[in-house]
Amino acid sequence: MLKLIVLRRDDVFITNVVRCRPPGNRDPLPDELAACDTYTLRQLEVLQPKLIVTLGRYSMARFVGSGPMRDLHGRTKDWNGITCLAMYHPAAILRTPTPEMRRIYAEDFRKIPPLLAEAQQKKAAALAAAAAASQPAEQLDQLRLF
For position 106, what pLDDT does the model report? Predict the structure, then answer.
């Protein structure tokens, strides 16, 4: 799927909202999710991602909102200045390998490059604004003359 959008595996960081699989491969409980949240938030602080792509229900609920995946996949939401894109977990595609499910997954995946480009533009604009704000007033006046 990364090849579909011309990204390399080295270009992405994959993590999870829980750090170990619960016993019996059951769904994580709220206290297990909460126990890992500090670590997740610290990772995001260090990595400063341009985009968060949530893969599955639990990461989607944390960063995009709760609700049925069929309604929320492909949607975005801003979380602390970072765009988050909700997507099905790849395992869902393997469990339901229908042409329709593959089409939906590919369609959602194709949203990533424009979202990354938009995030890059926002970052460049913010850096330019910060640089302009740090210029002494007379230098700004000189810049306006040109």
Answer: 93
